[in-house]
Design a protein that fits this description.
The structure is a single chain. The protein is built from 16 helices and eleven strands. By secondary structure, it is of the alpha/beta class. The chain folds into three domains: about 55 residues; about 190 residues, 3-Layer(aba) Sandwich (Rossmann fold), CATH 3.40.50; about 70 residues, Orthogonal Bundle (Arc Repressor Mutant, subunit A), CATH 1.10.10.10. The radius of gyration is 21 Å and the shape is globular. Helix 3 crosses helix 4, helix 7 runs parallel beside helix 8 and helix 10 crosses helix 11. It comes from Nocardiopsis suaedae.
């Protein structure tokens, strides 16, 4: 398993994967000769260490440990693989370990990355939570890193607003870090997705957090930095977003606050967009957010949905929310299929989650195209 043997996002491995495929790349890693096949990619001393790790990998046991933790493996080409990651080129993840009831690809279709300082001020925590909550109320999901401070506030705000949130971690799916966010991670697993490049048993490292940031930036069409010092990891995420030609946004703060100095630098030197609320963010994310400020909308027309997804939409009530099991029965599909289609419909802005379950989102026009179940 490449993800258990080689450094995440290494361009040498990515180049060989692109040219030779996963099977040959794995054999080259095991033999320690992958650098010989990399062509113009500069050499590295890492292949010897990778070969040692590869020979020690027990793929079957790795999958067993993942299953015990409730994690699944998602690889490029799978239905759940987010296509935006392809923008990373040879630094694209080789695979992702995923936990949660949500669908990773669907959750990222209509999303914004929200990042910031771990030691956030009361101002930063309030802004992150409120911004994420309001985005969620308009059926946007939030991607962040699961850390203390702004990340955790953004995840909680999104969950409170009724949308799925995506936590991208720098550790194995069975060693969720930081441990102090255990309750938050349990909520994310229940209503969203946790994902990581690292296999079971891997502990986080300082370098791992920096490498992880490129995935956060790649999963969403834009990144919002709420509060960050001049040497914050959030600026690293913003740099990745800029390199990917994604929208970079920053929230201004008090000029006397060192925690907002990074945001002010983004605004002054990086030409980041100044945002103050969810409507600003949605407006900046192009056609996907078009019309949200004026009272709601969907990513696509109902008529553009495939037949299976439209069938599930027709089974969602327009008023009182119901659970996925009832929707699956009404649509005549299995639970897993219903959950996948519900995730897509939520990402598209057609439906919303309420305290009693899923319902058609008011004001989208979708209610006029489905059966008026109550």
């Amino acid at each position: 398993m490449l993800s258990a043997a080689v450094d995440p996002g290494h361009p040498l491995v990515g180049a060989v994967l692109r040219a030779r495929g996963a099977v040959e790349a794995w054999e080259l890693v095991r033999r320690g000769t992958i650098a010989d096949e990399a062509g113009p990619v500069r050499s590295t001393r890492r292949p010897e260490a990778w070969a040692g790790r590869a020979r020690a990998v027990d793929g079957g046991r790795l999958l067993e440990r993942a299953a015990e933790a409730g994690a699944r493996l998602v690889v490029p080409g799978d239905p759940e693989w987010p296509g935006r990651l392809d923008g990373l080129g040879d630094e694209r993840p080789y695979a992702l370990w995923v936990r949660g009831r949500g669908d990773l690809r669907n959750a990222c279709l209509r999303s914004a990355a929200v990042v910031g300082s771990r030691s956030a001020s009361a101002y930063g925590l309030h802004v992150a939570s409120a911004l994420a909550h309001d985005l969620a109320r308009d059926s946007w999901s939030v991607v962040s890193g699961g850390a203390f401070g702004v990340d955790a506030a953004a995840h909680r705000g999104c969950l409170g607003g009724g949308a799925a949130t995506v936590a991208v971690l720098a550790c194995g799916p069975d060693r969720l870090y930081p441990g102090g966010n255990e309750r938050l991670f349990a909520e994310v697993v229940e209503h969203g997705v946790i994902t990581t490049e690292h296999g079971p048993g891997v502990r986080p490292t300082r370098h791992g957090f920096l490498v992880r940031n490129r995935v956060i930036a790649a999963l969403a069409p834009g990144t919002v930095v709420v509060e960050a010092g001049l040497r914050s990891g959030a600026l690293n995420t913003a740099r990745h977003a800029q390199e990917l030609s994604r929208t970079v946004m920053a929230v201004p703060g008090p000029v006397t606050s060192a925690l907002s100095a990074g945001c002010h630098r983004l605004l002054r030197d990086w030409h980041a967009v100044c945002v103050t609320d969810a409507a600003d963010v949605a407006e900046q994310l192009g056609a996907v957010g078009e019309g949200l400020r004026e009272g709601g909308g969907t990513v696509m027309a109902v008529d553009g949905l495939d037949p299976a997804t439209r069938t599930v939409l027709e089974a969602v009530p327009a008023r009182k929310g119901v659970g996925p099991a009832e929707i699956a029965t009404a649509a005549g599909v299995g639970m897993d299929e219903a959950l996948r289609r519900l995730g897509l419909l939520a990402a598209g802005g057609f439906i919303e989650r309420t305290a009693s379950g899923w319902r058609v989102r008011p004001g989208t026009g979708a209610a006029h195209h489905v059966y008026q179940r109550v």
